[in-house]
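User: Run a structure prediction on this.
Assistant: Running it now.
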Amino acid sequence: MNSDLDQVLTVADAVLYEGYLLYPYRANSRKNQSRWQFGVLGPTDAERAGIGEDSVLSTQLPVRAGDGAALSTVVRFLQLQHRGVERRCGNDDYEPVDELTTAAQSWLSWDEAVEQAIEFGPLPVADLSVPKSHPFVVASGTDVEDIAGGRLVRSRRELRGELIIGAEADGDLLRVSVTVRNTAPPVADKQDAIAESLIGTHLIVEVTDGEFISLLEPDAPAAAAVSRCRHHRCFPVLAGPPGASHLMLVSPIILYDHPEIAEQSEGALYDSTEIDEILTLRIMTMTDEEKAQARATDARAAAVIDRCDSMSPEAMLNLHGVLRDPHAAAESAGLIPEVPDGIDWWDPLADNAVDPGSDAVMVSGVRVSRGSRVRLHPLRRADAQDLFFADRLARVTSVHETVDGERHVGVVLEDDPAADLHEWYGRYLYFSPDEVEPVVS
């Protein structure tokens, strides 16, 4: 893997621990007693028996491959580790307890996790016309840590799985099929099932001498091949910096292409789609006793508590929001507002410069604004009716930009008998700038 992997791993770690802990971070919290919500691959037949989850995650990735194309894959997941607390009864005698408390600290019996990453490849794509299975085993283990008044006994079950990878032609592209399967034999109950599950399973796939195609916004020549790709319990997206196409993150949660962690987020909260400010404020409302209970559960929980307790006012303010110049972003993206001379962008008077009826956007070097004629080329198929608008001529009525910087062109169809009525009461059709073609008279 190349240097872009560091950025990918930051996002992948957030995926790996998504839902690991849920506030209020106490052992008696019902939410904390039901964890591992995403990417759990259970032992064989666990789902059918109603004691665990499906054993399989699979995806198909479209690739433009050169003659020497090869794939490297990392399968990442958590291995459950039970931490048992034992009180010393004599010189060499110990008894299991739910909790052990000393003057300095408390420990609870608790389920922790160990990160695992299994690497495969590089595998030449030319050798994958017949899918190949790559078994892997994660060893069981027991570790003992002496503490005041007793000891902690951490134990892990053996995990078994396999990566199956193959490739077949789809027109000018290759469709790479990747499957991860938990091959552990059937188990008896839910406790055994989670102990032998692959938790938070996801993949990082890299191609050399080739490029992955976005499954969210494929280019036109690849759109048909992308529509034929199938995915089971995962959402593959392009990873790494914007513009990179050699890395794919196959995530068990929905992401967008080139995901990244907000720079204001100073640490993981493991909270299931975390909202840093809200959870930080929630932790600040906890009593000292509640915080002590949280620290007793897990080292990661203790780190979250400590980080929130030591957070500076400046760091807290950063979580509340970021002030950006919307026009600076808009100008680089092509929106053309007209802020009067002498008015700063943040001045309330500048709001008068944002007018969908006069704003414009550059499309293929042509200024498109109210009154422009365009030909429609719907791409995203978000609405089935878009199919009926392909290649139709339309008149632009407005140009809009959302707070997220997305631009939309409002139009009415030229051959629609009700076009004037639609324009009168503002019932427009909306398309992105890349879905319209300027028609220059």
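The longest helix spans residues 5-16.
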